[in-house]
Amino acid sequence: MCGIVGLHLRDPALYPRLGSLLTDMLDQLCDRGPDSAGMAVYGDPVWSPPGESTVSLLDATVPAPELAAALDAELGITVTAIDLAPTTVLHAPVDADTLLAAARRIDPAARVIGFGEELTVVKGIGNPTELAHRFGLPAASGWQGVAHTRMATESAVTAAGSHPFSVGPDQCLVHNGSFANHMSVKHELERAGVVFDSENDTEVGALFVAGQLADGVDLEKALLLLNERFDGFYTLLVANRESFAVLRDPIACKPAVVAETPRWVAMASEYRALANLPGVEDARIFEPEPEEVYVWHRQ
């Protein structure tokens, strides 16, 4: 069944509350996905300090202190490693590609689940609310956040199979539903040289969108192309460092509700996840139309 929540803040006065608001939203939808959960936060000064890049690793085989020390020696700079098991968050004053490549050299078995200048991704197995508190999400701040509660259907219950899927710089995608033809799309992408890290159908959609963005297509067009290429029932929330976007399948089978105020835009699988947001009583509230891409840009 799965549950999606996302919050895009327009008012900087709300940035310190991002994590606490997102945690409450996530908590409301635990029953939609008790298997595992993932969260993506944009702009937290602890996880993604200004002027530094961030890389999120899953199931690192090297303990966080040893990994930081090895990266210090490898790069000749100070690298911070935050242990949020099973996620390890790295940040350093170097570009994301350099930090990512060094992390892969030192711990090639670890799975990269997020990277960029502002994005931090954390994932785990178990109750979503318990995970959020263990990771410290309520204390996080920033300008945008996305979270997902998962009920596994297309692949095993693993942290690697949980959402969001972040396969491009500062990009993430969360998904409620299933892509019926994801294997045919996956084989096409593999023939083009794309490498997959999981058996999850959502990763296929995420890599399709990331490829379009890398080719210079804007987010709205990338999602329109996904809608043309993928069959199935789905609601998607896609974010990057500039935008926050929602798309539903042609018959809008999977639920979605959006609330918008001058201070924020929020999306969730059910209204109850939005009910405690500040000023929601004055929000414009609507269900996204099928096949229509809704995009909000960072101010």
UniProtKB/TrEMBL annotation:
InterPro entries: GATase_2_dom, Ntn_hydrolases_N. Keywords: Glutamine amidotransferase, Transferase. It holds the Pfam family GATase_6. One of its GO terms (molecular function) is glutamine-fructose-6-phosphate transaminase (isomerizing) activity. It catalyses: D-fructose 6-phosphate + L-glutamine = D-glucosamine 6-phosphate + L-glutamate. Signal peptide: none annotated. The keyword Transmembrane does not apply. The keyword Transferase applies. Residues 2-299 form the Glutamine amidotransferase type-2 domain. Its EC number is 2.6.1.16. PANTHER family: GLUCOSAMINE--FRUCTOSE-6-PHOSPHATE AMINOTRANSFERASE, ISOMERIZING. This is glutamine--fructose-6-phosphate transaminase (isomerizing). The lineage of its organism: Bacteria, Bacillati, Actinomycetota, Actinomycetes, Mycobacteriales.
